Amino acid sequence: MFKFTTASKNLLVRSFSSSVSAQGAKVAVLGAAGGIGQPLSMLLKLNPLVGDLNLYDIANAPGVASDLSHINTSSTVRGFSTEEQGLSKALEGRDVVVIPAGVPRKPGMTRDDLFGMNAKIAMDLSIACAEVCPKASILIISNPVNSLLPLAAQVFKNKGVFDPKKMIGITTLDLVRASRFAFEKTGKVQFIPVIGGHAGTTIVPLYSQCSSLKLSPEDLAALVHRTQFGGDEVVQAKAGKGSATLSMAYAGARLVDSVVRASQGEDVVECGFVANDTYASEGVDYFAGILRLGKEGVSEILPLPENITQLEKDAIKAALPQLASAAKKGIDFVTNN
Ligand code: NAI
């Protein structure tokens, strides 16, 4: 699970150590002044493994950076606006780029409804990443992830720099929700893989892997539904003022932490939406799998556990056509623009 707490135990001791800053990961957040971007940037500022944090947004990134730069941890924070090649400067030398730039949902909207607004943003930012920091790990939060990760991958492919180990659509919030919702029933925090995609019924939580969870079929169905539509719960509760931001910031910070720890040699397992040929025979090239992270990004897509249930197998099968068409939409956007 998330080791951020372990690292943060030493936070005060290490706050003023310049060596941490010199060795720490170089991270950029694109969309850093938004509802997710601000708390995500703060969590990254608190992470001793992050040495250098660049914040970019079309509005107010220098303000957010100035604010965070007063927190007495060792990392440096700089803000970049759209003026004077700000995006390129923000991306220079980055090890990890996290992208929460884009419009969030309002009640009644699906993630796919955001495509028209967010595809161009994702394409422009992907082009800049491919040109300035093609070897960085690119972690995409913006929705619809099921289309925007394939879109970004296509941009990188067209420029000849795509590395499937280095590009992940962030589904970590689905794992966080599954873990929390199971905890509410079992009292135990456990890693529950969530595979498939990041939209409605493409989100497939593998509660079969939670040995302490004993539920009736009806209660299990309700738990699966809540995991798939947990985002809607937040959108409705916020009543037009956006979607999940704080839990998403936590989830994004966890994945960055995992990627950085793995890059330093730690064996880390996460889930994420990646180029994945497990279901290529069914026309699906992008699928959220259980990922082993290593020094160079995704080192292995782990096989699905043998004991997954028939219901889970059926859910995967039902998700495949949706995933194929969502990916096509992203790829077609690159071809046509
Ligand atoms: P927000 O509207 O609060 O913030 C978005 C930020 O992006 C704004 O500060 C805006 O100025 C910035 N932005 C817009 N165009 C930009 C560009 N071209 N370059 C750089 N920055 C740009 O939205 P919020 O709540 O932070 O959500 C961001 C995205 O994350 C949405 O698409 C939302 O659907 C998605 N999301 C994804 C989740 C996941 O699990 N992957 C969970 C929750 C939200």
Any key phrases for this structure?
L-2-Hydroxyisocaproate Dehydrogenase, Chain A, domain 2; 13 helices; alpha/beta; disordered N terminus; 3-stranded antiparallel β-sheet; 6-stranded parallel β-sheet; Rossmann fold; binds 1,4-dihydronicotinamide adenine dinucleotide
What would your notes on this structure say?
This protein has 13 helices and 11 strands. By secondary structure, it is α/β, with parallel strands linked by helices. The chain folds into 2 domains: 22-169, 3-Layer(aba) Sandwich (Rossmann fold), CATH 3.40.50.720; 172-336, Lactate dehydrogenase/glycoside hydrolase, family 4, C-terminal (L-2-Hydroxyisocaproate Dehydrogenase, Chain A, domain 2), CATH 3.90.110.10. The chain is globular, with a radius of gyration of 19 Å. Residues 1-22 have low confidence and may be disordered. Bound molecules: 1,4-dihydronicotinamide adenine dinucleotide. 1,4-dihydronicotinamide adenine dinucleotide (NAI) binds at residues 30-31, 33-37, 56-59, 100-105, 114, 118, 121, 124-125, 141-143, 145, 170, 173, 198, 242-245, 248. 1,4-dihydronicotinamide adenine dinucleotide binds at residues 30-31, 33-37, 56-59, 100-105, 114, 118, 121, 124-125, 141-143, 145, 170, 173, 198, 242-245, 248. Belongs to the LDH/MDH superfamily. MDH type 1 family. The active site is at residue 198. NAD(+) binds at residues 31-37, 57, 118, 141-143, 248. Residues 171-333 form the Lactate/malate dehydrogenase C-terminal domain.
